[in-house]
Amino acid sequence: MSASINMLSGLGDKGPAAIVVEANGKRLLLDAGGALHPGEPVTWARGLDVDAVIISHDHIDHIGGVSELPATLPLYCTPLVAQALPNGRAWQPLPERGTCQIAGIPVTTGQAGHSLGGVWIHLDVAGGIFYSGDACFESRLFPFDTPPPAQIALLDASYGTYDQPQQACVDAISAHLDRPLVFPVPETGRALEMALWLAEEADARGLSLAIDPIIRANLQTLLALPATLRRSHVDKRIEAILVRPDASQPSLNLISDRDDTAAMWPGFHLLHTGYLTPSRCAELAAGDILWQRWNVHLCASHLVGLADQLNAERVVPLFTHLSDPALSNWRTLLGARLATQKTLFLNTDALNTHVLNANTLNNRSLA
């Protein structure tokens, strides 16, 4: 059996996710990412010809390009992710954890540890192709399921070779809690676990806290899911937040990110914990906002550990820079397993899955 993988977008930089896997005469699009920055065009969808699309989770760089696709194209996602689709967009259910057939290709999904309703994707072709979407081992709320083996691993490397543990991030954020703060966060991702942590910190320090209603609603949604779709021993903590009243004059505000700027919150410091747009980088450089990462992606050691667990022969780091010095660091981490070509051709007629014509692929343009 042969297969091919085309990284239409998301390879070599932090950008929209869009990957086409062709096998058994069918073409599947993994994610349909939208632009990270306002006004940027979604170019990967031009001339696209696929049989179905599978969405890993509902963050804009993975789902924001759905509007660029034909409305008749079969689209698969979990029911929670479907809530973020354009109004009226038809979709078919993807299991939060399980197996199904999509365009005749066996697909397995599991919890990715990153967001509400988010999953990783495994295609049972060419010795196994695993796509993590965005993934994390360190979430306090979302579990990460062990995936089946895969010869090819397409992995979330949004943090590059950064390898700081979550507790160090939490400690660094804690140092800022002595001032009035606003945390703008993705409402289905780190918002939920940061709510638990901030509630504990507020109680321990005697601080006042307010949590955005949409974040509370998402915590309620998580609590209503089967218990296996969240970490154990968190239910009582979620329940406590849901009955906790918001302070009328909070010193800590956890809000759904709506492109807030420092000027919108006089008297407060905005503390961002994830990706910064160019305008926010300028705000940070000017000292108008604060930044400290809260891990929601794979750290370098976790990425390598996942590749080992998959027994992957080829590993593609996605959503990260792949020019030197970063490329040299990836070579050190992954050795001969590192793959950086936009197009991979796979063949399982041999004993092991391998990349054909690897020396020529660097010069091959996408169709």
UniProtKB/TrEMBL annotation:
Residue ranges the record marks as coiled coil: none
Pfam families: Lactamase_B_2
Domain Metallo-beta-lactamase positions: 15-176
Top-level lineage group: Bacteria
Protein name, per record: MBL fold metallo-hydrolase
Organism field: Halomonas colorata
